[in-house]
Write the structure tokens for this entry.
Amino acid sequence: MSKKTINIPLGSQHISLLEPVRFKFECENEKIITVDSDVGFVHRGIERACTTKFKFDAIGYVVARVCGLCAITHSLSYTAAIEKLLGGEITAKSKYLRILLLELDRIHSHMLCLSHTCENAGFEAMFMRIMGDRELVMEIQELLTGNRIQFDYISIGGVNRDISSEISKKIIANLYEVKQRALGYMDEFTNNWSLSLKFKGIGALSLDDAYMLNAIGPLARASGLNIDVRNEIEYLPFDEVGFKMQTHRDGDINARNLVRLNEIINSIEMCNNILEGLPEGAIFTKLKGKPKGEAVIRFEAPRGELMYYVKGNGTAMLERVRIKTPTFSCIPAFSHIFVGENYADAPAILASFDPCLSCTAK
Amino acid sequence: MKKIKVSLEDITNEIQGFYDYKKWHFLTLNGLALEDNKLEVQWIFSKYEALDEIVIYYAEIEYKDIIASIVDIIPSAIISQRELVDMFGVQVEGSSKGLYLDEDSLQAPLSGCSI
């Protein structure tokens, strides 16, 4: 006897994720057996705008608008590509300040994801607690850049604002608080039933499948795949500031939560190391010329590898700006993970992916 | 960054011979509009745990050409192939339109020719 199947959509608007993505599940009773996805609800044509509307020295600020949360990684990736084409070297101080912002961005983005995971587990109090604690990081970002999110901090040749000793002290004090609270979350995410046992074995991705599906970011590292762009680039000195790759073996929701928590703690250590050993000197180097040639640059955004391909022809207008975002790359892995899971777990699984549709529909 | 030129006919064989899924990470497909209504299609890879080791296979094609799919070799490439179809208006085997752009959107916005 053939089994009856029903189609159940998740999105394009759904309470578990306030971004426009739609997964269409074909279910046999409660079990998901096939998945189709649609990510194209808000395509904004930014790649085309970069080659038709803006000169190369303005595009760093345009691509920062691809995503509010990881604006820093977008503007940094683009800027690094242009610096590579112009052949200039930036100062050590500006490199360290760029890492500082990258890691602050990772901390607050991971906190946002963890809070949503709590919300999907019905643990509203923990959701509110993490969102409240996240303000400590948002406050630092505003002090350092002028904005809570979507900051225009990076420019071709360096960064736009120097750091004062008062701001440095405030960052250290706030990050100390965040670290204490993150250690408290670790206890909750390890021992609280709603956040640990409930998610163990749910939404799992095996290491072999992570390789096969080219998974990246915390999703891949939670399955034991050693992929973190911070470990694969020389452009910024991550090895000098205490970067340690965080992995797990289980590949499930719980493993993804724990990887993000460990990354928060490692990022705080990196920020402290930067502030302790921040070099003296200028924060900006004037680079001359127009970009000519092609460059591929990658950085580790909070959700994984972000890639920019830039081609210039020696004029102020570029020939091509290609943006490959982390969530977009992970969609095949997302779809694979859903298969075989219960529909009731789909919102929690989706939240554990920490998808960013603003990046995806760039 | 290493660029390797291939013909459109050879691309699947070349990638089949090169790609070891535990050594190489498939980054994405990229399109680059060229003059004379031509398109450069790039298959971009990076090596796991190696410093800045990027390999790009590329082929110059005409917009009317049908691009071979590499999904049998790299299943996750389907998403990039569908993006290429939408953005450049080309045909890739087994890759349907409509991932990014709806029917009433501007079609093939990155194409260098009128379609």
Observations:
- Chain B has a mean pLDDT of 92.
